[in-house]
Write a structure and sequence with these properties.
Length: about 325
């Protein structure tokens, strides 16, 4: 393959991000998606000989660093393209920062000199349910030292990630140091560097999570979870301040107008309400209610003027008299 052909498959920017992550599964999946345009996860797992769990994690990591978008994977040889684009309001998460070249000796010295870091490693071992490998230890030092996340914040972060894993995969699934690292980058980007900020972030996350059942009901989604695309849209709408009631209004108008659930159409409605500074059901119904239907007192085809019923009766009598 020559240089020109290779540039059609992967951009230099994407290559730099994948190299920075040093994640083989993530890089392999990205190359596969770019080359095939495949949207079928089961087929991707078979073609790549990758177990479902590893494949799911690779998809998550691509999404978290902003590489998993329909625009990034033009369909090859007629392969099916993604039906909907991600929400314009969804924010791409920047990739983990380039960490210094820590060593096992660095970790050893730091754990001996810093009791808070030593306690952090012990807690990580309990949460992960196993002894930490050398790469795990190096990641932990990178989060603690390079991302400047204090020990109490790191403790909150690890337990938060463990809770998310249990919710998604069940009690038997334990988080990895890599999962901690990805979440730590998000917290560092959002300046969540003290205990109160960490508590607020976790509380808001749980409040949003608790709304999911209501939003599924509002969008008439039954017996399945949100897709990745739906979840990106949903996150963007929640960022704008919309809850289940407002999302239901947008869904109702979308289905009435298009006859189907269209995330892109819903997004247009909600974005417009945001531009108009309408964020509650009451505000929306008062200032952007449904167009009035034709009826009494509405403009008609008679020059836009209302017809006087009394005069209409008089005209009818005159017409009857003329016919006799």
């Amino acid at each position: 393959m020559n240089r020109q052909d290779s540039e059609k498959i992967i951009t230099a920017t994407a290559a730099d991000l994948l190299i920075r992550h040093r994640d083989g599964d993530m890089a392999l999946l990205y190359l596969y998606l770019c080359r095939t345009g495949c949207t079928d996860r089961e087929k991707a797992g078979v073609d790549l000989f990758m177990p479902r769990q590893r494949l799911s994690e690779a998809y998550e990591r691509l999404e978290m660093c902003g590489l998993l978008t329909p625009q990034a994977f033009p369909a090859a040889d007629g392969a099916q393209k993604a039906e909907e684009a991600p929400s314009p309001s969804a924010k791409a998460i920047s990739p983990p920062a380039e960490l210094p070249e820590y060593s096992a000796q660095d970790v050893k010295i730091r754990s001996e000199q810093d009791s808070a870091f030593s306690a952090l490693l012990k807690e990580a071992k309990l949460i992960m349910g196993r002894a930490l490998s050398t790469p795990d230890l190096i990641k932990m030092l990178g989060m603690y030292d390079h991302l400047n996340l204090p020990a109490d914040v790191m403790m909150e972060l690890m337990h938060f990630v463990a809770d998310c894993y249990r919710d998604k995969y069940g009690e038997s699934r334990r988080p990895t140091a890599r999962a901690f690292e990805l979440e730590a980058q998000i917290w560092a980007d959002r300046k969540i560097t003290d205990f109160d900020a960490a508590e607020t972030y976790i509380r808001l996350h749980r409040e949003r999570k608790s709304q999911e059942c209501l939003i599924k009901e509002a969008m008439d989604i039954r017996d399945r979870d949100f897709t990745d695309t739906e979840r990106r849209y949903l996150s963007g709408w929640q960022d704008l301040g919309f809850g289940p009631e407002e999302i239901h209004l947008a869904y109702d108008r979308t289905v009435t107008k298009t006859g189907k659930r269209s995330m892109a159409y819903m997004n247009g409605i909600l974005q417009n309400w945001h531009r108009l500074n309408l964020h509650t059901k009451k505000e929306i119904l008062e200032k952007d209610g449904p167009s009035p239907r034709a009826g009494r007192g509405t403009p008609s085809s008679s020059g836009g003027k209302n017809i006087d019923i009394k005069k209409l009766g008089e005209i009818e009598e005159i017409m009857k008299g003329a016919g006799t």
